[in-house]
Design a protein that fits this description.
This protein is α/β, with parallel strands linked by helices. It has 23 helices and 22 strands.
């Protein structure tokens, strides 16, 4: 069978059902085989009625004692009752509003019933609305698939069975030595047993193989990008080291971590191969200074730098910071954002084109088609997780293999870092600059609001500023007050006479930027916000962060929010407000109050909440995974990485005939343009 055959041509599907399949991402026969079950029902283990444990799902074989009887119940509906026996025990069956049950169950005939065993008020075992099979599900483990309107799990099962019956053998793509080294079953065995397991042992083998495949292809794709980048040459080489000259201009001495990161990056940029480096550091660790040292070196070597930030306010802040650092030098810095006037844009673009602009700071406006650099030597992106891989690539295409520095204040656990940033070298800033104070963190109950408000007012009266962050209100959250209402309430009660501002996700970008500018300038004393300030501007004057209903936030998110304060020399405070008493919330708050180490917090968050917050194609621009789980499949991930590294070591460009099908799978997983042919 041809795996590229459109699903609509499969017997029993047709155009309407094909459209339903398409909603689930299944357009071809091959995609159907990769559409894995979400759960399984064990119809293979038949349990005697008397031994069936109440409260659990199980499979019972029994003979129908009498035809189902129908009884009307309030509301115009009805229920049907019958009972079955296996010769030793009796099990009552109850069906609600099932008009076909009389035709489905015949007196004296044997069936299989799958469902949860309960006990009625007379102490007799019963099943309510069980699944029924006359024979097709006998003695097997049955798959349960994701469903959508017009497409049941049963139909998907039927279509998948049809494909596998007509398929002689699913061709293998993995080299035999990798299968042997990692104790993996064949692909044919894995695909057949992930859908229709011979046993739970066979299902485990199938899962292991398919999880390995995903992680192996993902790792191999990232390694091949890194390998290709490592082999590329660039003319954007730093021949003159002006780092000490840069340090001499500073009114303070950089931390050891900053000097180490600058040295690592300079080594890359002077090697003749383009740098692809991630600079990872907690909020306030001094990433901008590292970027400034590299920009300084780039300018002194006759090349331009581009610095891309995710918002206009952040771009403006970087412009002010870097302009101050380069004040008194001959480095010309320009700012290009969507808000620049047409005349400004024309002049700035001309300066970029003719090379008179040494540093361009801006938003995605930098990657527009009409922005041309004369000699782009360094491209910096701030808060990389807010940009997709495509935007990073678009920025790098503005020059001939420029050096790339990616900066992130979002701590990523080591395991996920290998996945998310597998194509980048990594520098970590694990020291805070002198003068930065740790933010004191407390967890208090809702009953202490009056004291919290007084604490805030005491600081506002001294000229400081504060944040109050509210969780997003979703349907059914009757116990939460939306940020808009809360801000109005505070303005009319505890904070009457103070200057309050409101920031939330429904606002237009321009509105948000204006509010942040007013807060940054001090026009707003107290900012009430949703999580949109998680990645925001540097306001050293803001010293208090109050997080309402803190149990609604993940650990890493709480840490990112806390990072908005403690950016100046004054002692700062973060107050977590919550009445939550569950163990998970208590553990989360305990960690927040004990440590400000973002990497430790990220590891704990990963353990508690899983990889969802850190990993996802939408957030990081990487392929999504169908069956692998980065958190629970760590051991397989490590095995897959080792095998991928061996392949790259022997065939870096995957050009050997035996790697042809692997290369095809990488291209398919990553999509066009991510992995070049």
């Amino acid at each position: 069978m041809d795996f590229s055959t459109e699903i609509k041509y499969l017997k029993g599907v047709g155009p309407a059902r094909a459209e339903a399949f398409s909603k689930l991402g299944v357009d071809t026969v091959g995609a159907l085989l990769r559409f894995y079950p979400r759960a399984y029902e064990d119809w293979s283990n038949i349990i005697p009625i008397r031994q069936a444990p109440p409260g659990t799902e199980c499979c019972i074989r029994g003979v129908v004692s009498y035809a189902p009887t129908k009884v009307r119940i309030p509301g115009g509906k009805f229920l049907s009752k019958t009972c079955i026996t296996d010769g030793k025990g009796i099990l009552n069956l109850v069906f609600f509003n099932n008009k076909y049950i009389g035709n489905m169950l015949k007196e004296g005939e044997e069936y299989l019933f799958f469902g949860k065993i309960t006990v009625d008020k007379h102490g007799i075992r019963q099943m309510v609305s069980p699944l029924i099979s006359k024979g097709e599900d006998k003695d097997r483990i049955r798959p349960i698939y994701p469903q959508t309107a017009g497409l049941s799990s049963k139909l998907t099962e039927k279509c998948t069975m049809q494909v596998l019956k007509n398929c002689k053998e699913i061709p293998e793509f993995m080299p035999p030595e990798i299968l042997a080294e990692n104790d993996l079953c064949s692909l044919d065995f894995a695909i057949r047993n992930i859908h229709f397991p011979e046993s739970f042992e066979a299902l485990d083998k199938a899962k292991k193989r398919l999880i390995f495949d995903e992680l192996f292809i993902l790792q191999l794709g990232l390694l091949s990008i890194k390998n290709r980048t490592d082999e590329e040459k660039t003319d954007m080489v730093l021949k003159k080291d002006c780092t000490e000259e840069f340090y001499a201009r500073l009114p303070f001495s950089p931390t050891g971590a900053q000097k180490r990161a600058i040295f690592e990056a300079f080594s890359d940029m002077s090697s003749g191969e383009p740098m692809n480096r991630l600079l990872q550091g907690d909020v306030g660790s001094g990433k901008t200074l590292v970027a400034a040292a590299l920009i300084y070196n780039t300018a002194k070597n006759g090349m331009q730098s581009a610095f891309m930030a995710p918002t206009e306010v952040l771009a403006e802040q970087h412009f002010r910071t870097l302009s101050k650092i380069f004040d008194g030098t001959d480095i010309k810095t320009v700012l290009l954002t969507g808000s620049s006037t047409e005349k400004e844009k024309r002049e700035i673009k001309k300066a970029i084109r003719d090379g008179s602009a040494d540093l361009v700071i801006g938003t995605h406006a930098i990657i527009q088609n009409d922005v041309e650099f004369l000699r782009l030597g360094l491209a910096v992106t701030d808060e990389q997780h807010r940009f997709g891989v495509a935007q990073r690539a678009a920025l790098s295409k503005k020059g001939q293999n420029p050096n790339i520095l990616v900066m992130s204040a979002t701590p990523i656990p080591r395991t996920l870092g290998l996945i998310i940033y597998g194509d980048l070298s990594v520098s970590v800033l694990d020291e805070l600059p002198p003068g930065r104070q740790k933010t004191e963190t407390y967890c208090v109950s809702q009953a202490l609001h009056e004291r919290i408000y007084n604490f805030i007012k005491k600081h506002l009266d001294k000229g400081y500023q504060a944040y109050i962050v509210c969780p997003l209100v979703e349907e059914g959250d009757s116990d939460l007050i939306p940020a808009q209402e809360y801000c109005k309430f505070l303005q009319n009660t505890a904070f009457r006479g103070y200057r309050l501002g409101l920031l939330h996700g429904q606002m237009k970008s321009k509105e948000k930027d204006n509010i942040m500018r007013d807060f940054e300038s001090g026009k707003i004393q107290l900012l009430v916000s949703t999580v949109v300030i998680e990645v925001g501007v540097d306001v050293p004057n803001a010293v208090i962060m109050v997080i309402e209903n803190a149990e609604r936030f993940g650990l890493s998110q709480l840490h990112q929010l806390r990072g908005r304060v403690g950016r100046g020399n004054a002692l700062s405070t973060c107050i977590l407000v919550s009445d939550a008493q569950n163990d998970e919330a208590k553990r989360r708050f305990d960690i927040m109050c004990k440590t400000t180490d973002g990497f430790l917090i990220a590891d704990e968050d990963l353990k508690m909440r899983g990889p969802g917050d850190f990993f996802g194609s939408k957030q990081h621009g990487l392929p999504s995974l169908r069956i692998a789980d980065i958190l629970t499949d760590t051991k397989i991930l490590e095995e897959a990485q080792k095998s991928a590294q061996k392949i790259i070591a022997t065939d870096g460009k995957l050009q050997l005939p035996e790697h042809k099908n692997i290369k095809r799978r990488i291209d398919k997983m990553f999509g066009n343009g991510y992995v070049k042919a």
